[in-house]
Amino acid sequence: MLESKVHRVRVRLSARDDYHIEIGPGALETLGAVARRSLSPYARRVAVISNRKVFNLMGARVMKDLRAAGFAATYWLMGDGERHKSLLTAERALDFLTKSGIERSDAVVALGGGVVGDLAGFVAAVYLRGIAYIQVPTTLLAQIDSSVGGKTAVNTDAGKNLIGAFHQPRAVVVDTETLRTLPPRELTAGWCEAIKQGAVGSRRLFEETRRFLARGTSLSRARSRNKLLEPAAASADEVVTMAKLIAAQCAFKAKIVVGDERESVERLNHRSRRILNFGHTIAHALESVTRYKRFRHGEAVGYGMLAAGEISVRLGLLGASELESLRAAVSLAGRLPRANDLDESAILTALSSDKKAVSGHVQWVLLERIGRARIVNGGEISPRIVRSSLRAALAA
Ligand code: NAD
Ligand code: GLY
To answer: Domains of the chain, with CATH numbers?
Structure first.
C-alpha cells in the first residue's frame, strides 16, 4: 500500500523517545520501511516475537517484508493467553535473543495482541539493558491502547503487570485489516476500552466511537446482540472510517502519555495518565473473583465503567443522563458475560486489595461528565455507595 494512505500520529516525547504510530488498512506492508526509518542505521537483525495463532495469520508477510528491507529476521513464538505473560516466558524469549546474536543496535518486533506486546516490550526493555522494539498490534485493544505509551510488563502470582518497565517503542504499525480475523468477544473488549478513552477525555471521541458502533458492521459487532440480525460485512468505506477512528483513539492515548509518561502518583487532575484506569478498579476485582476465566479484560472494564459511573452519580458529580449515554455506548460494544450471579462481598474484598492503591486507599477514576474524569480517594466514598453502585452496574 502507499505510505500516503496511512494515518500518522506522533507521540511527542523527549527527542530520544519521540515516535510515530502508522495506522491504516494494509499498514503492515510498510513495516520494513518503517523499521529502516526508525531503527539504528547499524541495525542488522530483527527478532519477531509472536504466538502461533497470529503468526499463522500474518507471520509470513511480516518476515518477507522485514527481509526485503534488508534485515536478518528471525522469529520466536510464545504461548497464547494471559498466563504466558510470565517471567518464565520472558526468560525463554531472552534466551532466544541471546542465541540469535541480537546486538544492542538490533531490535525486537512484537506481533500480536496486548499479551505479546507487553511481554516482548518487557524483554526488549531488559535485554542488554534495553534495545529498540517496534509494536505491531493485531487486536483492537492493543491497537488503541496497549501498544502506545511504553508500559511493558509480565504477571506474577502476586498479580497482573506488577513487574515491568516503561520502555517506549521506536514505532507502532497498526494494520486495521488484521482485525477482520479477530473473534467477536475480542472486538467487544476493545470497543469497551475505546468507549473508556472517550468517556474520560473527549466527548467528541466518545461520540465518534458510539456512532461507529451504532452502524452495526462485522467490525463494530453492535447488531450481533440481536441474534436475528447478523452483523453486516464491513464495506470499504467502513474500513476507512474505522482506520480514522483508531487513529483518533491513538492520538488521544498519545496525548495523555505525553502529558504524564510515567503516571506520576502526585498528579490528580484530569490530565493524569491514571484517568485511563477508568473502570479498572472494579474490572480487576471482577477478573480476580472469576479467576480470569469469565471475562476478557475489556469486558470487565465495561462493567467497571458502569459501576464507576453509578458512584459518580451517587456522589453528585455526574448527571443521570450522562450515565445513560455511557450505558448505551457500552451496550453497543457487544454482549458482556453475565455478572449478576457474582458474590458482591467477594468483589468488595478483592477491591480492597487493589494493587494501584495509594497510601492504602483505592484511587477511583470517576466522571464529572462524558469527556472529563476526576480522581477521587477511596477514603472519601462510603462503602454503602460502592456496594449499591456495584449492584446496579452488575444488574445491567
Ligand atoms: P491477547 O493479546 O490475549 O489477544 C486476544 C486473543 O486474540 C489471543 O488469543 C490472540 O492470540 C488473538 N489474536 C490476536 N490478534 C489476532 C488477530 N488479528 N486475529 C485473530 N486472533 C488474534 O489480548 P489483548 O486484549 O490484545 O491484550 C490484553 C493484554 O494487554 C493484557 O495482558 C493487559 O494487561 C495488556 N494491556 C496492556 C496495556 C499497556 O498499556 N501496556 C494496556 C491495556 C492492556
Ligand atoms: N492502559 C493504561 C495506560 O497505558 O496507562
So the answer is: 3-181 (3.40.50.1970), 184-225+260-394 (1.20.1090.10)
Q: Which residues contact 365 (CB under 8 A, 6 or more apart)?
A: 200, 274, 275, 277, 278, 279, 280, 281, 308, 373, 374, 375
At 215-250, the pLDDT tens digits run 877 788 644 444 444 556 677 788 889 999 999 999
Unique residue bearing C-alpha cell 492503591: 357
For ligand 1, atom 33, name the residue with the nearest CA: 114
Protein residue with least CA distance to atom 21, ligand 1: 182
Q: State how far the Cα of 370 lies from the Cα of 373, in Å rounded to an integer.
A: 8
Residue of 118, 84, 112, 80 whose CA lies nearest to 179: 112
pLDDT digits (tens, 9 = 90+) for 343-389: 999 999 998 876 666 677 889 999 999 999 999 999 999 999 999 99
Closest atom of ligand 1 to 85 CA is 32
The upper half-sphere exposure of residue 83, i.e. CA atoms within 13 Å in the direction of its Cβ, equals: 3
| Cα dihedral value 362, 395, 312, 345, nearest 10 | -30
Beta bridge partners of 9: 21
Give me the amino acid identity at 264: S
Task: Name the percent of the chain lying above pLDDT 90.
Answer: 85
Q: Catalytic: which of 263, 356, 368, 377?
A: 263
State the distance from the centre of ligand 1 to the C-alpha of 321, rounded, in angstroms: 33
Nearest Cα residue to atom 10 of ligand 1: 113
Q: For the whole prediction, is pTM greater than 0.70?
A: yes
